Each structure stands twice: as structure tokens, then as C-alpha cells.
């Protein structure tokens, strides 16, 4: 019997965990399903997810209306294989053996849905590339 590959885990981090990191986590969950463990957090979480972000994701069939911004913890970083910051200067604990990436993306805070769509599309492209790298589809 072949070994079952270990489920990789990814943590998306931005300051408020209300926009970019929420979009990235939603896309990774939507596209990879149970092949990847997904977390998102912020160093100074907002009270709610950005409504323009929720609307932009709803346009592509992803509902994040029940999501709540979460605070970044050392435990979340420690439990993740890949930590992706969203170009917002976060201080994130660094542990050996983790892979750290910085996705420099415009901040959707205070923007309308028209400004959020291109950010959403860029995040989807990056998430698809990440999945192909860390959790390719199982071969039959």
C-alpha cells in the first residue's frame, strides 16, 4: 500500500485579516479542498471581513460571509508548513523548517468591489500555482 502524502498546511497573514489573507485562504480551501490545511490570521485583526472582499468572492461562487478575522498566534505559525505574508510589513515569528513567502499585493481596505476584483484575480492565480506546487492532484 503506498504511503499517503502528509497534508501540507498554509497560513496566510496580513495586518487586519479582513481582505487579502481572507481571499487567499478562501481560494485555497475552495480549490484544494481537504488536500491542504488552511489558516489565516492578522497581527491586528479587524472586527469584520471587508464587505467589498466578500462581494468580490461571492461573484466567483465563494461565500466568506461567516468568516471572522483571527489574531496571529505563534501556534498558528508553528503548525504551518508555508507562511505567506501579504506585503503589509507584518512581524511574523520565524521558525526553522518553515517556508516563508511574501505576496506583495495592493491593500483592498477602503476600496470598492471594482478595485478588489483585480486583487482577487491575482490571489487566485497565485493560489493555483501554490496548489500545483504543494498539493498536486492525486494520480489515479
UniProtKB/TrEMBL annotation:
Keywords: Arsenical resistance. Residues 8-133 form the Phosphotyrosine protein phosphatase I domain. It holds the Pfam family LMWPc. It comes from the Bacteria. Signal peptide: none annotated. InterPro entries: Ptyr_pPase, Ptyr_pPase_sf. Gene3D superfamilies: 3.40.50.2300. This is Arsenate reductase ArsC. It comes from Streptomyces lavenduligriseus.
